[in-house]
What we know:
The protein is α+β, with helices and mostly antiparallel strands. It is 60% helix and 16% strand. The relative contact order is 0.12.
Amino acid sequence: MKLLDKYILKKFFKTFIFVVLLLNIIVCVIDYTEKQDDFLKHGLDFGYVFQEYYINLFIHWVNTLSPLSIFIAVVFMTARLAAHSEVIAVLSNGVSYPRFLLPYVVGASAVGLLIFTLVGYVVPYNAKTRVAFEIEYLKSPYYFNERDIHYKVSDSTYLYVESYNNRIKRGYRPTLETFDGNKLLEKISANRIQWDSAKQEWKFDKYEKYTFNPDGTQKFAKGTSLTKKLNLDPKYFESKYNLHETLTNTELSDYIEQEKSRGVANLGVYENALYERYAYPFAILLLTLMGVCVSSVKSRHGSGYLIAMGFVLAFIYLLMVIMSRAIAEAETLSPFLAAWLPNIIFTFVTIGLYFRVQK
């Protein structure tokens, strides 16, 4: 059986590499046609764009599309084997179907481990250059448009800002509250908050300050300006476009914990990105098994029918991944469950297909 394993693995890797290259070249060409006007507007020559952007974009899409690439490759390769009656010949010689699947499992596991290592610890370094390029030339200028912003600036102090203009580093309708447990000690409200870059502190304009004493009395003061040094930098209001793609697994975990400690609530996109990275190897293995089950049976409609069916399933899977990301970002579902939901659903699909295969 070692000869058969080598034969299948050789076809597996060759077809996977071919599909990866083909899909990603198509994606990059389409991307270039869409962004060509932006490159010309900034006077960028193709050599610079290719080096700074498209090499890194290609690496990004290789990893992002790897589950779908491996599924399409497996369907295409196995459908051709089935069309030439090679699968039937193997099974009719006493080889069990699980044993026939073994080289596919080995190949998928190797690819899954490689992709997990790359996307978790290598690709983020390439993404820094690509994302910086996109921010500079494709997403500029950036405007902070979030509202009702809450930050935990110390263990007992919380800042609320109704809106913020990152171009002039100014926030509007801020409220700074200091607590002792559940007891409010101090509250400062102002018309606006302005960053002083020279003194590295925040200035509250037209403020009102309430101090609540332990004996139940309170003091009130107001003025034109009040300065405060807060554990909050204007960088937190700058562009975070695709920030999660530039962080390794360790950095992404640390960032999530840091933001949670600051009282930031909407972290679904970061948590989902982290959980998706751990779901990648399983997705690659799952889609490989599903691809074999779909295409290993010789169809009277020909191999083209099996390949088309594989593309339909791949499209459905991709649609579910996109929907689950949107759900996670909206925080209507746990980011962990959203990241694993497509795999959970397609696990049952794969089990159903496995038991329908003629063995």
